[in-house]
Amino acid sequence: MPAVRSTASRKAEAEIAVRPINGFIGAEIEGIDLRQPLSPAQFKIVHDALVQYEVIVMRDQDITVDQQMAFGALFGELSIHPFSPNLADKPEVIILDYSKDNPPALTDIWHADETFREAPPLGTILRAKVVPEVGGDTLFSSMSAAYRGLSERMKQHIHGMEALHDFKPWRPLFSHNDRAKLRKLEDEFPNPWHPVVRVHPVSGRRILYVNQQFCVRIKDLKTDESDTLLAFLYRQATIPEYQLRVKWKPNTLVMWDNRSVLHYAAHDYYPARRTMERVTVKGDRPVGVSGAYAPDAVEANGMVKPLIAEGTRPGPKRAFDRY
Ligand SMILES: [Fe+2]
């Protein structure tokens, strides 16, 4: 009976609440049960929240990995990580199981996932299974907010720049005897040049698209210039206003828009156990801002830090402020 279904689905949509968490990033979504398939209208609410708030948090999702994969598949084809150990029969699923005998590695650094690929993932879905009593939070930083926070002069400076990305954290896994294997992976994942400022394919927002886990250098700059500029740009992710810090509980599910945020897993719970299930959705090749520089006209998400015009900051003027 289609009429009954339609009433039920309207009710299900009406029960969804999207609540922003911080001014620049993050929303908690209530009223979704991922044990059931989402209707197209429910999925649209979740998808739009992801694009707008960049990180979505859903609590109490006691789901199987198959249900997590089904949720991911709504966003696109799932991706298989070339280095992380995955489930033998479901290679799209990575189990991150850290404990005394398997300390966490490679995640306590600001990064977007797999930007060493020509087409890095659209998004990543993590679900908590075992959570340490204290610690083990994941931090996120909005790189669209970070871009907006730069001065116009700096935005002009980095306009059109490209950065080289590499799977460098995994290189030490290959010993001298594994060189043939490493060469094969280098052929499979040739270093991509990604724009330093990426345009989000859905929202059109500009995103500061560099991360210290995978970036090597900026094209056409001297090494010292590139290192200095990258260090400055990396620092933007550490500005607290751009951040969200997720405290996990068992069955908390978080999805982040891997095109527009960086993340960092706080390494403060060893030797306690922390177990997560991860599913990743394939993305497209990053595209930069085309043509000559013009200020960004796309409306920003949420609040924007008000610009204080030159010389209008209240308070006594200091000699060096006059120039
Ligand atoms: Fe990651």
UniProtKB/TrEMBL annotation:
Pfam families: TauD
Presence of keyword Oxidoreductase: yes
Domain (TauD/TfdA-like) ranges: 18-280
InterPro entries to which the protein is assigned, alphabetical: AtsK-like, TauD-like_sf, TauD/TfdA-like
GO biological process assignments: sulfur compound metabolic process
Coiled-coil blocks: none
GO cellular component, as recorded: cytoplasm
Keyword annotations: Dioxygenase, Iron, Metal-binding, Oxidoreductase
Gene Ontology MF term list: metal ion binding; taurine dioxygenase activity
Domain of life: Bacteria
Family affiliation: Belongs to the TfdA dioxygenase family.
Protein name: Taurine dioxygenase
Organism: Reyranella soli
Gene name as annotated: tauD_5
